[in-house]
Design brief:
The structure is a single chain. By secondary structure, this protein is α+β, with helices and mostly antiparallel strands. The protein folds into two domains: about 190 residues, no CATH class; about 60 residues, no CATH class. The chain has eight helices and eleven strands. The protein has a four-stranded antiparallel β-sheet. The longest helix is centred in the first third of the chain and has 14 residues. About 25% of the residues are buried.
Length: about 280
Amino acid sequence: MSISSLSRFSALSVFLIGSSLAGAQQIQPRPMITSPINESQVVTLRGNVHPLAQPMFDVGAAPADLPMNRMMLVLKHDAMQDYVARKLIDDQQDKNSPNYHKWLAPAEYGAQFGAADQDVQLITGWLQSHGFQINRVSNGRNVIEFSGVEGQVEQSFHTQIHQYALPNGEQHWANASDPQIPAALAPAVAGIVSLNNFPRKPLLQVSGTYNGRSGQLTRKQPQFTTPFQGGTAYAVGPADFGTIYNVQSLWNSGSDGTGQKIAIVAQTDINIQDVRDFAICLVCR
C-alpha cells in the first residue's frame, strides 16, 4: 500500500472523529472475504517495501526470534462505504446541511465505515493461527495491530526480515520483499505497516527565525510564506496568535499568561528560542 493511500485513510478517519452524528445515512459494512482461506493461493501486496531496504545496504537476514512488535494490517472498505463517507465529509463542512459539524466518535465511524465483523474475525483468526498476538483492533475498524517474531512473519507473509546498514551509519530491520497473503483475504486487506523500524521523517520545513522582541503584537502581513500543494501556506508567529484567537484584548488588559504552562505533546526537535520569544511577546505590550 502506498504512503499516499495510507494518508487518505488517515485523513478520512480524522475528519469523521468527534461527538455524535444525527441523521446521517446508515450503512452496514459488507463482508468482503467470501472464499475459504487457502494458504497455497497467495497474492502479493505491492508497495510494502521501505525505499531504503535496498540490496546494496543489505547485511543479512534477521534471526528467527527477532521480536516484531506493533505491526499493523490496514483494512479496506468497499466502494459504497467510501462514497457515503466522502459525502458525509462534504456535509460536515456545508453550513446548509443538517450534518454540518455533526461529528462521529471513533466507534461510530468504525460501525459505519470500518471492516465488517466477519472480516475482522477471519483475519484475526488467521493471524492467531500463525502464532501472532492480536494487540488491538482500532476503533475505526480499519487497522489490526499484532505482534510476533521474524519466523512467524516469514512463514505467514512469505518475506524475510533483513538488516540494512545505511551510509550514514544507521542500521535498521526491514522486509526484503513485498509480503504475500492468502488470496481470500486480499479483498479486505490494503497493506501492512511497520514490517520495518525505519523512523518516519518529519515534514517540517524551516522558513526562518521569528523575532519576538520587535514589540509588534499585530502584523498585517505574515513574516513567512511557504509553497504548499500548488498554493501558499502562511506561517504564523506569536504576534499572529493574538489576532487569530482574539486574545489581544486580554493582553491589553494586563493578562500576560503568568502561572500558565504550555505543554508540547509530540516528539519534535523544537527551537527553544521560539518558546523564549513567545513568552517575551506575551509581556511586550
